[in-house]
Amino acid sequence: MDKSKRKVVIAGNWKMNMTPSEAKAAVAETAALTDSMTGCDVVLCVPFVDIAAAVEAAKGTNVKIGAQNVHFEAKGAFTGEISASMLLECGVEYVIIGHSERRQYFGETDETVNLRTKAALAAGLKVILCLGEIKEERLAGITDEVVAMQTKLDLAGISADDMKNVIIAYEPVWAIGTGLTATPDQADETCGVIRATLAKLYGADLADATVIQYGGSMNDGNAAELLSKVNVDGGLIGGASLVPAKFAKIVEAAQA
Ligand code: PGA
Asked: Distance, CA 26 to ligand 1 centroid (Å)?
């Protein structure tokens, strides 16, 4: 398999961290540290209220700004939700959809993840679609089935053309925020299962061209080995993305 067909994407997921003023400083610092590192795409997915400050601070740099969710309706009576057109007008390029914290704590299902993904793509956003097994599923030996099923359900009805704007983030739920990381071989193997599922759905060429990130306690110490794996095309980084110097080390590890 030829990994060179894919551009590595290193994305930070700030989750519910950083006020707008903190965001402004952190984006500027991240941009300053990573601007010469053009061997991968760099994205920071920030809280909604930080978007304006983050977009402003990222202007003229290599850092792209993402949001952490999007609603599937264009507008209407959906208190607390944000639409794709709102994000676009604010200068957002990427959006995370289906993060396990949304699935676990906010009742999101493969069905709503699929609806959100379709709406985001139709509006012109790039999607970072998260999926992954929980600990019990890994222990039961059904990881491959779980990720294959999520891939199929989350992408149902999404065209091959739209897949150009989809990144998949494989995030084993047991590794998120726990300090436990999948071994590089586990990450490679499960990203490979997702790629094989994409090949069944869309053909081998599209599967070869799709960026599949690993996420789950990736940090400046383990990134290089994870990223060296043939099926791992980048990372979705939570905790370590909050410290620009640590995040920049991960971006550096992706320059190979
Ligand atoms: P973590 O989070 O790096 O803090 O484990 C990753 C994620 O949730 O995307």
From this structure: 18
pLDDT at 256 over 80: no
Ligand 1 pocket, residue 239 CB under 6 Å: yes
Give the homologous superfamily in CATH for domain 3-253: Aldolase class I (3.20.20.70)
Compute the distance from residue 101 Cα to the ligand 1 centre, in Å.
10
**Interval 53-111: pLDDT, tens:** 999 999 999 999 999 999 999 999 999 999 999 999 999 999 999 999 999 999 999 99
Nearest to 170 by CA among 155, 156, 150, 141: 150
Percent of the chain surpassing pLDDT 90: 96
- 71 assigned to active site: no
Domain boundaries, the chain: 3-253
Q: Active-site residue 99, yes or no?
A: yes
Assess whether the C-beta atom of 234 lies below 6 angstroms from ligand 1: no
* Residue 180's pLDDT band (cuts 50, 70, 90): confident
Could you tell me which of 142, 128, 132 has the C-alpha nearest to residue 175? 132
Q: Ligand 1, atom 6: nearest CA belongs to which residue?
A: 238
Closest CA to 115 of 97, 135, 88: 97
Answer yes or no: pTM beyond 0.90. yes
Residue 217 Cβ contacting ligand 1 at under 6 Å: yes
- Report whether residue 215 contacts ligand 1, using a CB cutoff of 6 Å: yes
- Helices 20-34 + 244-253 axis angle, to 10: 30
Q: Give the pLDDT of residue 1.
A: 65
